[in-house]
What does this fold into?
Amino acid sequence: MAIHMKALGTTIVALGLGLAAPVFVPAGATIAAQSQKFDGARDTISRTQSDLRRAATFRPTSKKEQERYKNAQEHLSELDRHFAKGKFDKDTMDTAIEDIQNILDHNTLQSQDPTAVLLNPPR
It folds into this structure.
């Protein structure tokens, strides 16, 4: 479990560092151009959501476990919407990370589930 949490921390640090880099956009640029700086983060969110959907279908889950998956999906979607508009929301990202951590801490996962959610290599 410690290696998985370390992997999550590493992924988030890399994601955070990528988003913190200064980006200079001409004043006349469109929202689409501004949101391009988040394309890598949006790809990571998409893969994570896919992994969460897959993990949720591996075995029957309790209502509480289903709620944890739903919360993570909703907050990841909200974060993605911010990124699509070219905006970064630290609180939303922190909440999504906490939701994923709650799944790891409290849901019963098959052995490959944490790896699928956390160690999905960048493309």
